[in-house]
Design brief:
Strand order of the largest sheet: 2-1-3-4-5
Strand content: 25-35%
Order of helices and strands: HHEEEEE
Distance between the termini: 125 Å
Number of helices: 2
């Protein structure tokens, strides 16, 4: 039985079809997979770092919102109301989104994440500026209240060094 040569040949008897490689060798495939694997492992290794940074930024943003809300409340209150409302330190509780929580039956709400305590201190300042003239009067005394907002994150409540304090100065412009 004769085999029929289906491959065309030139006049020298060589095949006209080029037998050059048309694919990848196993070594090339393994090298490519190794590079991809190392890249994926590096990206996965950075994910916890990025997640922690995101959580810290989100927490700082919520803390700033809580402090701003309390600062607006303090600055909007009249001086007499400040004296009565904050005669004793007031504690406020917030959830993970910065919404205020209210304790029922006394005690702390069970699902609080942030706790803010507002303490009011008296401060007297000598030699305040008179706005109408722009001069300083050394005999004039202005009574100020310094509200200190102490903010605690629940997971860090047993570590006093993690407590953040934000002072807010409020003056009674009508007192001399």
């Amino acid at each position: 039985m004769d085999f029929v040569n289906v491959f065309p040949e030139n006049e020298n008897g060589r095949s006209l079809i080029s037998w050059k490689r048309k694919g990848f060798s196993l070594v090339e495939v393994v090298l490519a997979l190794g590079i991809v694997a190392i890249s994926v492992i590096a990206v996965i290794g950075l994910m916890p770092v990025g997640l922690n940074a995101f959580q810290e930024a989100n927490r700082a943003n919520i803390e700033a919102e809580i402090v701003a809300q309390l600062a607006r409340q303090i600055e909007a209150a009249s001086f007499a109301k400040l004296r009565s409302e904050f005669a004793t330190p007031q504690t406020y509780y917030y959830d993970f989104e910065g919404r205020e929580l209210f304790a029922s039956g006394g005690g702390d709400p069970p699902d609080w994440i942030f706790k803010a305590t507002v303490t009011l201190n008296d401060t007297k300042v000598q030699g305040s500026e008179i706005r109408a003239t722009g001069r300083t009067d050394p005999t004039r005394q202005v009574v100020m209240k310094t509200a200190v907002i102490s903010l605690v994150f629940k997971r860090e409540q047993n570590d006093p060094s993690k407590e953040r304090r934000f002072p807010i100065h409020v003056s009674d412009r009508g007192t001399s």
